[in-house]
Amino acid sequence: MKNSLPEMDSLFRPANPAHFDNTQISRPSLSFWQDAVLKIFKNKMAVLGFVLLTAIILLSIIGPYLVPYSQSEQSLTEGNLTLSGKHWFGTDDLGRDMWARIWAGARISLIIGIASALIDLVIGIAVGGVSGYMAGRGKTGDRIDSFLMRIVEVLYGIPYLLVVILLMVIMEPGLVTMIIALSITGWVGMARIVRGQILQLKQQEYVLAAEKLGTSHSKIIIKHLLPNMMGIIIVTLTFTIPQAIFAESFLSFLGLGVQAPTASWGTMANDSLGTILSGQWWRLFFPALMISLTMFAFNAFGDGLQDALDPRSKN
Amino acid sequence: MYVIKRLFTMIVTLWIIATLTFIMMHFIPGDPFASDAKMLPDEILENMRAKYNLDKPLAEQYFLYMKDLARFDLGPSIQSKTRDVNTLIAEGFGPSALLGMQSLVMALVLGIGLGIIAALNHNRMLDYLSMFIAIIGISIPSFILAPLLIKYFGVEWGIFPVASWGTWQHTILPSFALALGPLAIIARFVRTSMLEVYNQNYIKTAEAKGLSTFSVVVNHGIRNALIPVISFIGPLFAAIITGTFVIEKIFAIPGIGKYFVDSIFNRDYPVILGTTIFYSIILIITLFIIDLAYRFVDPRIKLTSRGE
To answer: Is there a contact between B272 and B172 (Cβ–Cβ < 8 Å)?
Structure first.
């Protein structure tokens, strides 16, 4: 190395070692997850989302038992009643108690929404991750990416309703069949988004560094790439849930979903469409409110989670 | 060479989709003449089956269909006795595509704008406000939004026509009903990836050297934040310009969206296959363009090892 100019050296003074005491601990040592939990509870919106979510799940368990009616009990003389002490959320056209139906429906909708979102998440990340990472990695890599993306295209292309009807023929109609039907084609969206993100992120220097240090491909994807795209994955997840809830109601509307009198939020919203003009506002309002509140809770909590899991955002 | 290879892959993918759809639709119980079967004598039914080749073995039906398909003939529609599938698609595609394009532009412009506003005002009033709009947008499905729009904007305030198809005013309500969901999702994506991009050093550099907020957002921020939006709108584009069942039913729009659902329930085999193939062609081409668009937005992205 070339020597620096002597007059430059005179401009520098040795620093006082007391000013940078490296051994001093400025904050307690926390693991990644401890840090994340602490950050989440500092975020008011995230706490609100968490509390709301807990309340909704809790009410879906105990809610139906708080009133003396079952979700399917009809009382034709008490049809379309507005809110009262007797029927907290009013009744529907067949005199069924809306409170009981809302919370019984919450079980179906939440299970369908969360289960299919989780399945989408796992398959989508696996396929999208491998596909995006292998693209541009030699001939074999190109082939893997191309093959996986052709599967995605085929699944996008074949009519989803045919798949659902076929499944209903092969298996008995019900919750599990419904979740499988929604996940068979549901994960392709997540896979495309994860692939797009990986394509962009793997150009970063830290991936190159990890690779040169001999880190395995799977470890690079899981430890280096996925944490850096957590935000996008969480956002995708939070709208997969309502989409599954609505897909269920669309299928029920076509006669392929949960069968009456079983309630779900989607079918309740669907059944109440006629009331938009006739004025029984509570019939549409409560299912729509519940879907929105759930969505809000997931999004608020998701945003907090994203901030907490992002290693770059230190507050 | 690359283009030819890619074109060949596209045709193979299309063929797989058509074949799978063919197998699946013949596997589900039911037949196109189920509603006529009670009223018509057996001889007539047999003649009708023969007319549409349904009396032949499945393998033969498949080869006959593929032969027609190779000549871009999608066959006759069993339900609509006077028009074939090519005509059905040609007549209905215009309205569906117009609505789809309009709502896509609406969703992109408003969604990206809302996302940028939210990200620039992270954890402040405007951020919460745009997140609120986004959550409403994701939570209200089009089958609820559409009747509400008709009730207020159509019936009570009389600003827009209630339904049907004709002038440009007729397209505004259905376009908005179609756009709101994607708009909300795009806004959430842009907000999230903008926040991530804003943690990067090159944004600090751009700000430190005194660039205006506008310049930082447009030249350094949004470009790097657009990848998830591009991934999302690819499949959406194909789905939305080929029409949607719910919106076209509610607003009485003469598009092709309804055929995707009705044909399956009527077991109108040629229409099922025809609409599926038409949609798949648009989808496969769109996804190909999306792959090119990744490279356009972020030139560092390499899709194949030869650099294409």
So the answer is: no
**Burial track B50-61 (b if 16+ CB lie within 10 A, e otherwise):** eebebeeeeeeb
The count of CB pairs under 8 A between chains A and B is 176
Which residues partner with B76 through β-bridges?
B84
In angstroms, the Cα distances linking A154 to A157, A160, A245, B304 are 5, 11, 24, 21
Tokens of B86: 């090519």
CA distance B90 to B256: 9
Residue B193 tokens, joined: 């990836």
pTM as predicted: 0.82
Report the half-sphere exposure of A247 (CA within 13 A, side-chain side): 22
CA distance A310 to B122: 15
Judged by CB atoms closer than 8 Å, whether chains meet at B279 and A249 is answered as: no
| Interface contact flag, B234 A292, Cβ < 8 Å | no
Q: How far is CA B188 from the centre of its chain?
A: 20
Find the CB nearest B279 among A154, A157, A200: A157
Packed helices B169-197 and B227-241: angle between N→C axes, nearest 10 degrees: 160
Tens digit of each residue's pLDDT (9 = 90 or more) over B106-119: 999 999 999 999 88
Chain A CB contacts of B189 below 8 Å: 232, 235
pLDDT digits over B139-185, tens only? 777 777 888 888 787 777 877 777 777 777 778 888 888 888 899 88
> CA-CA distance, A304 to A310, in Å (whole number)?
10
Residue of A143, A154, A292 to mutate, testing the B interface (most B Cβ within 10 Å of its Cβ): A154
Joined tokens for residue B295: 């490279």
What distance in Å separates the CA atoms of residue A193 and residue A125, rounded to the nearest whole number? 9
Whole-number Å distance between alpha carbons of B242 and B108 = 18
Name residues 2-61 of chain A within 8 A of B (Cβ): 45
Q: Would residue A75 be called left, alpha or beta, if left means φ above 0 and alpha means ψ between -120 and 50 degrees?
A: beta
Provide the token pair at B107.
């969703």
State pLDDT tens for residues A28-65. Answer: 777 777 777 887 787 777 888 889 889 988 988 887 77
Euclidean distance between CA atoms A253 and A251, whole angstroms: 5
B76: helix, strand or coil: strand
ipTM: 0.83
The CA distance from B261 to A309, in Å, is 42
| Euclidean distance between CA atoms A59 and A129, whole angstroms | 37
